[in-house]
Structures are given as structure tokens and as C-alpha cells.
User: What shape does this take?
Amino acid sequence: MNIKGSDNGDFIWGSDKNDTIDGGKKNDWIDAGKGDDRLNAGDGHDRIMAGPGHDIAWGGDGSDAIHAGNDDDLLYSDASSAFNPFEERRVIPHSGESDDWLHGDKGRDTLVAGDGADVLTGGEDGDAFVFRFHDPMVGTTHWYTTVTDFDPKQDRFVMDAGDFGKGDLFGANFINHSKGFPGEFVDTFYNGAAEGAHGEHVVVITDRGFTSSSAAATAIHGEARGDIIVYYDEKTLGQDGKTHGATLAYVDSANHAHAFAHVDNLHDMSDLTSLTAENFGFI
Assistant: This one.
């Protein structure tokens, strides 16, 4: 069933079949119900309840909240084309400068960050957190995505490098460090003390924290443009002496990097030591 909202702000309820719902403009509340649904929030600050079924939801412009339900779902912070992060299909990027909240609930969900200050919660089961912008910008401010519940045992960070080098302002801009074709894990990986890193494409630092991404890049050896560094952010150091989150940063030149994601729940050193190459995929 095709359901289209007005431009005045609507309450929209889907059927128990496979629906296509377009919220239109203004602030909408969309409850898709059962079925495998395709949901587009449109403009405005919207709330989407995807419900049971394998759903695809797009946030659109405005700050949105998307709640997936208990099946395997695909959630986009902004208005992008659907894709499978473990196949060769690519996203068609679109600027989404709003601050969105995506919640996967149960199921193996894919949550795609936009270029606002998004908050991603995967929920139960193994999830993929997809990033297309290593340096998202809104005006003159750099933003990063917050992941609230990354589980090293079953979740994955996925970097979209599909449009790298095309010069498109809104294109994906990671460098592909897969083992040969999109959908594979990172080709070189290191986890350990900063001084032991020597040019690996993903470096997880486990012996100390840093006050900036560039300080982390300076502490390792052989870093180059496109490398990803994971480290503790000392700016969030608590009274207990432990940092309360990890940061993912992208190296853009020698001794210089900038953050694109923060992981709130990796707040103990042992959480970082458990990260492996299988936690980092490229498409």
C-alpha cells in the first residue's frame, strides 16, 4: 500500500501488508505496523516506528528518531539509496545535516550515519554501523556520530569508500582498505601499544589515551592518509581514572587526524583490546 502524508504534519499508520510511506513535509509521526515497509520521513522533525518486518527507513531533512523493531532492518539518518553493506551495491550519498537518533532494537540491523551529530544504538544481535563521511561538516563545525552500544563480539564498523576521489561534496570519502573487494574486512590491522604500530590501516591503541586525534596519530609510526585510529579520549576522563568512551579518527596527513565517531560504551581498556580486524569492514 502506498501512503503519502500531507505537508501539514501528520499521524500516519501503515497496514499489516508491505507499505511504502512518505511523510511529506513538517513534523510527522509514522507507525508502519507489520510488513516489510519502505519509510521516508521527509522534511521536518519526525518519529518513525518501523514495527515488525524487514524495513528500510530514511530520516530525511530535519532531526528525526527512527525505531526499527525486532527484525533485520536498514536505517538511514538521511535520504540515501538502499544498499547491503556486505555486498557490492553502493550508497548514493545525499547530504543530511540534521541530528538524528537511530535505534535498531533486536535483529541484525544496519544503521547508516549522516553528516550531522547522529546517535546510533544497534540494540540486540550483531549490527553494522556505517560511515560515509570521515569529516562531516555542518557549516564550519565538525561533527561526529555517537554509537552507544558497540559490542566487539558481534558488531562491525563499516566504512563506505564507494565514491572516494570523485570530488563530490556529498560523496563517500573513505579510502577502501578491504582485502580486495567491497564487503571484506580491513587488510592490515594492529591492536596494542602505540609505539608498536607500523603503518597498519586500522590501529587500535590500548596502552594510553589522548586529548586529540592528531596526538594519537603522532604517537604511532608509519601512519598515512586513509588510516583509521581507535583510541581513548582523555577529554572524557572521569574521577575514577577511566575514560568513558573511545574515539575513531581518520588520518588525512602525517601526524594529523580528525574524529568521525565516538563509542560511549567502550569505557574500559579491556573493551579496546577485544577489537579485531573483523570489527572493521569496507564497502
Q: What stands out?
A: The longest strand covers residues 202-210.
